Amino acid sequence: MSSILPIAFDGIAYASWLFLISAGLTLIYGVMRILNVAHGSLYALGAYAACSLAGAWLGGGLPAAGSFAMLLLAAVLVGSLVGPLIERGLLQWMYGKDEVVLVLVTYAVFLIMEDVIKLVWGVDSLLLPEPYALPGNFQLGGLPYPVYNVVLIALALATGLALAWALYRTRQGKLLLAVIHDREMSMAMGINVSRVYLATFAVGATLAALGGAFTAPTIAVTPGIGVEVIVLAFAVVVIGGLGSLGGAALGALLVGLVRSATVRYWPEAELFSIYAVMAMVLIARPKGLFAAQEARKI
Known about the structure:
Layout: H1 4-32, H2 39-59, H3 67-89, H4 99-121, H5 130-133, E1 137-140, E2 143-146, H6 148-169, H7 171-181, H8 183-188, H9 193-215, H10 225-240, H11 245-265, H12 270-284
Antiparallel strand pairs: 1-2
Pfam families: BPD_transp_2
Family: Belongs to the binding-protein-dependent transport system permease family. LivHM subfamily.
GO biological process, one term: amino acid transport
């Protein structure tokens, strides 16, 4: 029992992080049918923006607790500025083309943004330890754990609940579901699909940046951090089913718990365990656990 609690907590904390970075990716695919490779760079941009804003806040001698607000602000700024810029400036001209073309376009955006990040912030590592250390630690199973992990879990829960409420309890969410089900019919009924796409991509970009912003205090922020993240995010959404928000949550939880147990008992196989889970799920269910139902064309 003493080992089960730490494994479960580590797995849930890691799953919370995975869900934050995967929710936007599966949302964008569900609505726009775009496998957004640039999601990784949006994550990295959120991390760098968080370091800059929170660092400036703390450098000004302001209360350290306010640095958490700076992390949120960084995510909102990246999502509301960079997301619409990519969608309006580039992606809107690519709708209707083959999905492979859209993947290549977003991959090009990923490469461009990686170089832009290096030009703006340089190649040296950035550190932002204050938000991570500020809440302190607690004991679980005889081991010390940072309270910051609890913050990540709470943030993931709040994000998931907010997305579910927005999708199923609001008028805008129901319009979004209509677009997901049948784009052509939605246009015929007078729904502004272009505006729905813009809002969806902005929200997805904000979620990617949110994951990066709240990860920044736990790591050394360096160029290339978005590469591993986009691979992990793809693994999670493929396990859960492309376009399924609930699938992303379940996929993140499954990967998080399996990884946590593997790190505990067989650390050399940490990375292998994630892709082993993906392989086993796809063997049983080739479209993932909760693949979104496709509209039948007549």
